[in-house]
Every structure is written in C-alpha cells, then in structure tokens.
Amino acid sequence: MRYMTAGESHGPEEVAIIEGIPAGLTITAEDINEQLARRQHGYGRGQRQVIETDTVTIMGGVRHQVTLGSPIALNVHNDDHNHWSKIMDPNIPATAENSLRKVMRPRPGHADLVGGMKYRHQDDLRNVLERSSARETVMRVAVGAVAKKLLAALDIDVHGFVANIGPVQSDLTQLTKYHNLAELREVTESFATRSLTADDDKAMQAVIDQTKRNRDTVGGTVQVMATGVPAGLGSYVSADEKLDAKIARAIVGINAFKGVEFGGGFDNATKFGSQVMDEIYWSAERGFYRGANNLGGFEGGMTTGEMIVVRGVVKPIPTLYQPMQSVDIDTHQDHRASTERSDTTAVTAAAVIAEAMVAIELAKAVLDKFDTDSLPRLQEQVAAYREEIKNF
C-alpha cells in the first residue's frame, strides 16, 4: 500500500491516490466523511472550520461501494478557495492584482523561511505555507479512513484521544475502566477536547479560552491505541523494516509533531529493567502473552500481539495573533511576523490525524505480509496466521 496527496491550503481541491487496497472492501463516502468531520471538530479550532465542511468525492477505484483492487482516487473540495480563486489561480501568470496577500515576514516555528530558502521563493513565502499548512492532513485522514475500514475487516481497531493540553493532563488511570476501544471512543468523542473525563474536558477548555484571550497558542500530547494487531508485523532484520520506527516517522511527519514515544516511553529511562520488560506467559486460550505492556506492543521492531500504545507531542501552532520577532525577506529589516487565520490549538484535531497515520502504517504492514489482491483471501490468511501464532 502506498499513497500520495496533492493540493494547497487555499487551492481548489485536496486530492489523494491510494494503491494496494485489496478488492472487495466495502467503503462509502460517508465512512470517510465521518473521519473528516472528526478532524474539523474539537475545542480550540479556528474560523476556517466554520467556513468549510469537508466532504470527499470518490473518483476511482470503487464501484457500487466496493473496492476494485485498482488505485483509489479521493477528492475534497476547498470551499474557502472561493475567496482565493485569483490569488491561487494556476492557469494565469502573476499580476499585481492576483499577487495580493504576499507573505514576506516568516513566522518563527513555521516552514516559511527555510522553505523559501530551499525553493528560492524570494518573492512570496505564500508559495511555502500553502503546501506546508496542516490543511494537507485532510487527505491523510481520508486515506486513514480507508485504512481503518480495512483494519476493521480484520478485527483491528484504532483510536486516538488527547492526553494533555498545556498544563492539563488527562487522567490516564481511567483507561483501565474500558474493556475495548469502542467503549473508550464513545467517551472521548463525547468531549469537545477528546479528553478522558468531564473534569479534564472542563479544565482543558479553560486553558484554551485563556490562551485565546492572551492571543497565544498552546500544544499538547495525543495518544493512539490499537487492538487486535497480531504478533509479528514488522521485522528485526533491517532497521527500515521495524514497524515502530515506521510509525514513529509517520507521527513526527504530521505538522507540528515534535516527539513520539511507545508504551512507558521516556519514563522508562528512569526505571530499571525489572520494572520495564514485559514478562512472558502462556495459556491454552491465548497462547503467548505479556503480563504488562510497558513497551507499547513492540519488541525488536515487531508487534507482540499486545495493545499498541503510541503518544505524540504537538507543539503550539506558530501563527500568533500577537506576532513574534521576524525579518522582512525583501528589506531585511526587523518586523513582526506575518499573521494568518489560525487555531488556538489543533491538539484535538491532531488526535484524529495521529490515529489515521497509525492506521495507515498498520494497514501497510498487514498488506506487506499477506496477499493483497482480495479481501476475503486476506481475511483467510490473517485468520490462519493468528491460529499459527496462538499454537506456537
């Protein structure tokens, strides 16, 4: 499985093409739109979420709501493009009239300056920010929605929620209350901040409100969990085949993510081996299993069969309504950085995007290991493999 996205933040369309999805998977626009709506909703999002309602059009690879095995083409229209049609028009040369809203004062923490240097966009840094914008993640969520449907057909579930926003931490001890991710999903999706409890939600909203009054932005941490993943996905034989490494790359590849950890993560560095390693047990019903999950479902770059637990650190959004110190790229004079319409926080959306990226990498790993032509054949092979692993 592989995919590619294209499109600019204020361009007419965002598009994606996915290769490698087996024939026979039922997928509808509504399945994808449900995930796109989750990305748009969440406390702290900005005005653009009011302007646009992201909906997908399936352009190829699906017939009568069933995948054909051919490349799947997805399209999401940018409603906001109506206000930018001249500025973003790809079919006419630049003029004074259609070159308004130039960006000449790069924002600290954004791709503006370095991207301008790399691609020689000396006349207008908008050429950088239009693609480096997190708007592109709408298509990663769309691709993730397809991946999640595939995983669900194999009894694999994936869910992301917010672990903290600013100084407010979700009460992670509450996770032990839930028997499965469906129960957890019902709770976290009921809160505007995607936190674990009503008290967490209230406290996070208060932090976001105060941050907005301060004309500032705030970051946080998201957690993604996956259940039903069979042991042995990924490989120890080469560094680039380690599945946890692939997931780490996918998470840090999301806009504004600056760190990733699995299981106990960085806290494991303060402990001793006897406190960290997941002891091994066996039963006739389960086969081999672990007595704990401090390593987040991975050993040697391979899944252990335990729940996958991944956390990603999201920095505050670099667009501030009280701009920071910058320099004009034309005059080289000190100025305050440019401002663009922005969110106070995108952590609530980041949980959905991280969930999508974990789903994509898990789907890739499954499709790397088994036959990818037909979903029924894939299901047969996965079921046989699970039985083989259980009887090892």
UniProtKB/TrEMBL annotation:
It catalyses: 5-O-(1-carboxyvinyl)-3-phosphoshikimate = chorismate + phosphate. One of its GO terms (cellular component) is cytosol. InterPro entries: Chorismate_synth, Chorismate_synth_AroC_sf, Chorismate_synthase_CS. NADP(+) binds at R39, R45. One of its GO terms (molecular function) is chorismate synthase activity. The keyword Oxidoreductase does not apply. Gene3D superfamilies: Chorismate synthase AroC. Pathway: Metabolic intermediate biosynthesis; chorismate biosynthesis; chorismate from D-erythrose 4-phosphate and phosphoenolpyruvate: step 7/7. Keywords: Amino-acid biosynthesis, Aromatic amino acid biosynthesis, FAD, Flavoprotein, FMN, Lyase, NADP. One of its GO terms (biological process) is amino acid biosynthetic process. Its EC number is 4.2.3.5. FMN binds at R131, S132, S133, N255, A256, G300, K315, P316, I317, P318, T319, R341. Reduced FMN (FMNH(2)). It holds the Pfam family Chorismate_synt. The keyword Magnesium does not apply. Its cofactor is FMNH2. Belongs to the chorismate synthase family. Homotetramer. This reaction introduces a second double bond into the aromatic ring system. NCBIfam families: aroC, PRK05382.1. This is Chorismate synthase.
